[in-house]
Write a structure and sequence with these properties.
The protein is an alpha/beta fold. The protein has nine helices and 16 strands. It is about 35% helix and about 20% strand. Helix 4 packs parallel to helix 5 and helix 7 packs across helix 9. The protein starts with 9 loop residues before the first strand and ends in a 16-residue tail after the last helix. The structure holds 3,4-dihydroxybenzoic acid (DHB). The site of 3,4-dihydroxybenzoic acid has 17 residues, from loops.
Length: about 325
């Protein structure tokens, strides 16, 4: 029998994660029943769907390709932030905290800064331990992605950080320009943001069904956020770039295309303190968390490592 024991627990800037791996926001985490399922799984924490103040039904269907024929292992979505609204979310967090001892993290995506402020203040008196602020949803019709505006991000951090004593993370869009890494890292450090989640989907991608000569989702004339295997190199590049700039002072949660323990191991090498799974969860259900953790432990054991710290960020350069 191989020794499959390994401590995969993580202290993410005060958030106690039972495991290195947990769920990404936006996948099967809109209602209490789904969050309870995540709590019952081997996920390290329970993260909610991004909430807005008012309930939303989201964009028109079809809006989510769970398994892409064009790029297997990838998804395309333009959900448009369907969620039960903030009031119901608060009730849900109360119920969930009675159900599980796992860390609960609320994803918050206000339609305005005023909405974000309101939700941050109210969450102070809720049982959630962390807030993942999400300024990187690419699917709001007629709205740009705040995460690409470095000035606006700095302003937002200045406004939001003092409003909460909870552990505060920010979900970032994928960046492709080195100046974004420099400027955002400086702003994250200056404003005492606890951790980043990198990355969200690649916005405004197009999957074409060439037989039907058609787009594959309805909103935005077919444009949506691409996730899954295809985005892993980009997300890894973001994690590695931020790791070199944040120097452990702002923690990093990697997300994008994790389907195996080896994928998680690569994120760890690039500097991730923990990882999230979105597409793999959508395609395989909660068993993906245990599968990835078991495979990761096998890799760590076979390489003779005894802690995550021995690997984190130790990617060799040439
Ligand atoms: C949605 C998509 C995202 O990528 C995100 O971060 C938040 C919301 C959505 O379309 O619902």
């Amino acid at each position: 029998m191989p020794d499959n024991k390994f401590d995969l627990s993580v202290n993410l800037a005060g958030l106690k994660l039972e495991n290195f791996v947990y769920n990404a926001s936006g996948v099967n985490n809109e209602i209490l029943k789904q969050l309870q399922k995540i709590a019952d799984s081997k996920a390290g924490a329970v993260l909610s769907k991004s909430t807005t103040i008012d309930p939303r039904t989201g964009n028109e269907n079809p809006k989510y390709i769970v398994k892409s024929k064009q790029i297997p292992g990838c998804t395309l979505n333009s959900m448009g932030l369907p969620n039960i609204g903030f009031e119901k979310s608060l009730e849900m967090f109360e119920e969930l905290s009675k159900y599980t001892h796992k860390t609960i993290i609320a994803s918050v995506s206000g339609m305005s800064m005023e909405d974000n402020i309101k939700m941050f203040k109210t969450l102070e008196n809720s049982p959630v331990q962390g807030i993942e602020w999400n300024p990187s949803c690419p699917n709001m019709v007629g709205k740009s992605i705040l995460g690409y505006d470095m000035e606006a991000m700095d302003q937002a951090f200045q406004t939001l950080r003092p409003l909460t004593t909870k552990t505060l993370g920010v979900k970032l869009p994928p960046y492709m320009d080195i100046t974004n890494f420099d400027r955002l890292a400086e702003s994250l450090l200056k404003n005492n943001i606890d951790y980043i989640v990198s990355t969200n989907t690649i916005g405004n991608c197009l999957l074409i069904d060439s037989n039907k000569e058609s787009v594959t989702i309805k909103p935005k004339n077919g444009l949506g956020g691409l996730a899954g295997s295809f985005i892993k190199p980009l997300s890894l590049g973001n994690v590695w770039s931020f790791y070199q700039r944040l120097k452990g002072q702002v923690k990093i949660v990697g997300v994008g295309g994790i389907h195996t323990g080896n994928d998680a191991f690569e994120y760890l090498l690039a500097g991730a303190d923990a990882v999230q799974i979105g597409t793999g969860f959508a395609q395989n259900g909660t068993k993906i968390f245990e599968q990835v953790e078991t495979e990761l432990v096998d890799i760590l054991n076979s390489k003779g490592y005894t802690s995550l710290d021995q690997v984190r960020g130790n990617l060799k350069t040439l």
